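[step 3/7] fold_predict: job queued, chain A
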Amino acid sequence: MKACASFFLVYTVVLSIHLLCPVIDGNMQNETDRLALIAFKDGITQDPLVSSWNNSLQFWRWSGVYCSREHVHRVTGLILFSYGLVGSLPPHIGNLTFLRTLVLQKNSFHGKVATEIYGLFRLRVLVLINNSFEGKVPTSLTYCSELEELMLGYLIH
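[step 4/7] structure written:
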């Protein structure tokens, strides 16, 4: 009877951990980050790379997407240097709230820089040079208090 009680206790603890920590399961993912990346992909009109971003792989395994070891399945880096991407930067980029590094250098992004990007208070590196963004740099950039490297290039007015 004592062995049965011990087994039941261990089983209950393991089950509780599994139910309380679903992020450990490889099939679980942060839906907000996944949807933000899908919206980013939808803003791309020519994409030799991000067309491979689909449900066959978890988003943290997509090319150019980097996630945190501390906050499992949260996007901390989006590094798409010289991928030949053409399109605009959607406001959904602001939903990647753990983003620390955004490098879109040497692509063909155009239009205004989504103002939501400047609400990413964890952002440390922002590199947007060699694109065709237009407009002024919003004053809300000051909300990125962790920013260490900023490379905007020329914005067309």
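[step 5/7] annotate
The helical segments are 2-20, 31-42.
The first strand starts at residue 44 and ends at 46.
exit 0
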